[in-house]
Specification:
With about 375 residues, this protein is an alpha+beta fold. The protein is about 30% helix and about 25% strand. The strands form 5 sheets. It has a 6-stranded mixed β-sheet. A 6-stranded antiparallel beta barrel has the order 4-5-8-7-6-9. α2 packs across α5, α2 packs across α8 and α7 packs across α8.
């Protein structure tokens, strides 16, 4: 390596370090330093009601990675009448609107964590394989649903004797009441069937709600709500909304979309969870974004760093529309990172979520509405 190239390499490295430092510093700023925000109040009942209607329908649709069809159909049903959705070969759902440059892309994922049936034992129990990253122990001893070609089959996740095999526990199994492999097959269960647990959207006190698969049904809902309220006459450029597949197992749907678009988009906004430390047992020195205080700009996560100038632009857009916005850093990746190899800037947006990838995730509907407002504003004026 030449001295010039080595110097350039050090500069590039220092530039990346500086961007991370700036983004991390932004994450520590209290919301009070970003003036002119109006936090959505519990009295904005019509906004809260619409957010709940859309979100609850999405949450109660099932779609393990690779089997997102029911969720995709729910999204189609909830879109405004003018939308003309298209489904690509990867199963992604697209809605295109506006004309001209720059092209801006929004993407939220349709899938949820879960399992697939790996094999069926002679005793009729189902041996499972995980789809996505989570603690399988959270499912043990809970009710199960096997989604077969002939309909859902009820079962139970069997507890595992993992006390002496903590670092290499046996696979999770489900009992559907069958006493033999043939009996399980007769129910319609087969290798490759997806498995989840029953779920229900439940409203808690105030504007809080709990359920499973808020990751990323909140992102899906925000895009739908933004399209419902978006003023298409204000669009000065082309916008594409994508609901992607197989995010939880490697951003596969988004990768296909990014390859199809190549370097054409100016920027991409991945709409996904901000895994927040705003919970009773978390240390509050990283990823703190309180529930109920608005959407979050994901300045840095494990897959991408948003350039500080773009974070500033987000803040300016939110100020112009009086939308509550937090800025923070968190763990996890996002669909937008599949676009960056093509030179597209990834400006990830999210909302604070407690207990991500668990059976009892918690959100605040004010944040859902705030995120939808931000997506709409970014499409219209940035």
């Amino acid at each position: 390596m030449s001295t010039t190239k080595a110097t350039e390499g050090r500069k590039d490295g220092m530039g990346m370090i500086r961007r991370v430092q700036v983004s991390a510093a932004l994450a520590l700023l209290p919301l009070a330093v970003i003036p002119s925000f109006r936090r959505l109040s519990a009295q904005d009942s019509s906004r809260i009601s619409e957010a709940q209607t859309v979100l609850s329908a999405l949450v109660e649709s099932y779609g393990v990675s690779g089997a997102e069809g029911p969720v995709r159909e729910t999204v189609k049903r909830l879109l405004p009448a003018w939308a003309r959705p298209e489904t690509d070969s990867a199963g992604n759902l697209w809605v295109r609107l506006g004309q001209g440059d720059p092209l801006v892309v929004f993407v939220a994922h349709l899938d949820e964590i879960g399992f697939t049936v790996d094999s069926i034992r002679d005793d009729g129990s189902l041996v499972l394989r995980t789809r996505g990253g989570f603690f399988s122990s959270l499912f043990e001893g809970q009710a199960a649903l096997v989604h077969s070609a002939r309909g859902d089959v009820a079962g139970i996740f069997l507890p595992r004797d993992s006390g002496f095999t903590r670092h290499n526990p046996p696979p999770v199994r489900v009992d559907v009441g069958a006493s033999s492999r043939a009996a399980a097959l007769a129910l319609g269960v087969a290798a490759g069937s997806t498995v989840t647990m029953p779920k229900q959207y439940v409203r808690l006190a105030g504007t809080r709600a709990t359920g499973r698969s808020f990751d990323d049904r909140v992102g899906d809902a925000a895009q739908i709500l933004a399209l419902r309220h978006l003023d298409r006459t204000k669009l000065k450029h082309a916008v594409i909304f994508i609901w992607s597949t197989r995010e939880e197992i490697g951003l596969e749907g988004a990768g296909a979309a990014a390859a199809a678009l190549g370097p054409t988009p100016r920027r991409v906004h991945a709409i996904d969870t901000f895994v927040s430390a705003d919970s009773p047992l978390e240390r509050r020195n990283f990823a703190v974004a309180p529930l109920g205080q608005g959407a979050v700009a994901r300045a840095t996560d494990n897959s991408a760093v948003t350039p500080p100038a773009y974070v500033d632009s987000l803040v300016a857009v939110a100020q112009a529309r009086h939308i509550a916005l937090q800025v923070g850093t968190t763990n996890g990746g996002n669909d937008g990172s599949t676009f960056t190899p093509y030179g597209v800037v990834d400006v990830a947006l999210g909302w604070p979520l407690r207990y991500s990838h668990s059976p009892a995730e918690v959100v605040d509907l004010k944040d859902v509405a705030s995120l939808a407002d931000l997506v709409q504003a970014v499409a219209e004026i940035w």
